[in-house]
Specification:
alpha+beta; 3 strands; 27% helix; elongated
Length: 77
């Protein structure tokens, strides 16, 4: 059975509380605040070359949803 993770923007604490109340009785559902820091390093220019082999935690679609709607839903195995 898949689990659902609701990730809510930190500035939308009202939405976070509402989802927690509504989904409290649902099994396999968790609601969390997005704890990621948007910009980790301040740089004026892009890095010379990408050092990582792949984007481990790149979820562009989910990031866009959090910014636009205030939350996103991620399906976990």
């Amino acid at each position: 059975m898949d689990r659902l993770l609701f990730v809510v923007a930190p500035e939308r604490r009202d939405l976070y509380e509402a989802l927690r109340q509504v989904l409290a009785a649902e099994r396999g559902v968790e609601v969390i605040l997005d704890r990621r820091v948007r910009k980790r390093r301040g740089r004026d220019e892009p890095p010379a070359a990408e050092r990582r082999r792949f984007a481990r935690r790149a979820r562009a679609h989910e990031d866009a949803e959090v910014r636009a709607r205030g939350f996103t839903v991620v399906r976990l195995p």
